[in-house]
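Fold these two proteins, one after the other.
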Amino acid sequence: MTIWRWPWRRSNLRPIRLIAVACVWSFGFASTIAPTYLADVRPILAKNCSPCHAPGSVAPFALRTYEDAFRWRTEIAAYAARRAMPPINAEGGPFDGVAGLRLTDHEIKALQDWALSGAPKGEGDDRPIPTLTAERWTVGHPDIVLKAGVGETVGATGEEAVRTYRLPFGREIYIRSVDVLPSAPKSAHHLQLFWRKGADQGFVGAWTSGFGPMALGAGVAVRAPRGSELVARVQYLRTGREEDAEIAIGLVADQNRPIASPKTLFLGSGSRLIADSCVLVMALPVDGKAGQPYRLSARHLSGQTETLVSLMEWNPKWTETFHFQRPRYLAKGSVVASSSPVHLLTFDLESWYRLRELH
């Protein structure tokens, strides 16, 4: 019987051993390569941080370049690990705009690993991250400009200030967008604009520093009825010095009747029965209790309760508008409940179908 033997001697195996060791070492090294700013960190900052952390904006420092990020690398990693930034961390949604900013576990780990490994820059496009500026109108020159806070100031220290300005207007108008030019861009954080006529009121638009006007979409404009006044709620931040409170509010009007005009349902603390079927696109909670949780939910006809917006802690500095990426259908007879007053921006079904055909 012939016995089969391995044709290589032990000495012949040495090159294979060396190759195997090299492969294992290379694989282990590749799996622990540190993230770099240009490949890994820059995209995270551009999406979640730089809109507010821009020169002259409300944040205390800019995060547009590698040098900016390197200088603040330790703070970036620490705040991300605590989920203190981005600041809202809302459950429900998902949301567009600032309310939708939320770091994933993978992104948090990338920021931590980058800081711990010496914050390497890497290779690639190292141009500054583009950001909006509060020094000019975002949507072109508006059709109507109103002034608020004229002659007023915001004190250097203390709690963040929320101020309400009543702006007599009078005529009927369909408003597509609301833009803001603040005299003190580092102080004016966000604005919500409503119309009010007697006991009736409705949402008009919103603006956030670093993000600009809230987008309602093509063919959509909000109607402010004849004889109403406009009411602006402005959130100011304290900057350590006295700031000018004056802001210019720019209204972009729709000269023709829009394809669809949303309606506002106002709900105080408690619940409300939906009288007519509608599509919910946005929620604007107001007057919550600082430090307390907030929850907006809907109980559907099936008996299922859906959380629409949930905040572990209400922070008036950051709580703004919640624009749903996936609008919610609320059938007649559904019940919406909120732990604080809230404005719900909705479309009736006929208007919603017209919009769907347009898009």
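Now the second one:
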Amino acid sequence: MKKNKVCIRFCVFLLISFFSACTTTQKIEKGEGIVDGHEVAVESEEEIFSLSDFLDTLYVSLRNNGLEKTLGLFDTLPEEAEGDFTIEYLHASLLFSTNDYDAAAEIANRLAAENPNNADVMYLRAMIAKGQGKLTEKNALLKQMITEDPTNSEANVELANDQMLRKNFGLAKRYFQTSLSSDPTNPDAMLGLGQSAYYTGDLKMSKDILTRMTEIYPEESMGWFFLAKLAGEEENYKKAGDYIETALSI
């Protein structure tokens, strides 16, 4: 999967997941006014910073303007929004997605100091460390995640990918299966299981999981490309050609 598409999908998912916890905030100010010649107490509503409105703005900008321009929105935040976990986490995630690993690490490390056992922060730090080439730090963070939650979907995918690079396809397959046990529609785990199942000779599992993946995520070209490979193995070249055509159209 293309990195930019994956990053945008990831950030959009984060934004959607945070919406339900947000509400619009209003500031009520009391004062005095004159009504029909009499002095009376009145209340006025002054809208202040709303996290849900800001997330909505981020979502629209991410869809329409891309990562770089969306990052500029964080410079417009009022003082009262500083230090908010959701905003800081999203800011670090977007910086990571633009390969600004040092800036992302600064925010992520600050979040980790305040939330040492937060799995999302640990995973973000692990991916930042990977981008920085700090593989020992990345592996230590993944180990901590697995120790606290053996079925953590993201950590198991990353461990599986490491094993795929080493051509330990059987172990990679088990990690991908563990990932899917906690998140059955994780697209990276679905693709990885399809590939690792193929390389361990389980062509039926490979075909089944990749077919399901393309049904759920038809925009992910790698699923179609690998289905084409499987169709070629079956000498169904017409279907293989159709799969390739679909992949290239994305």
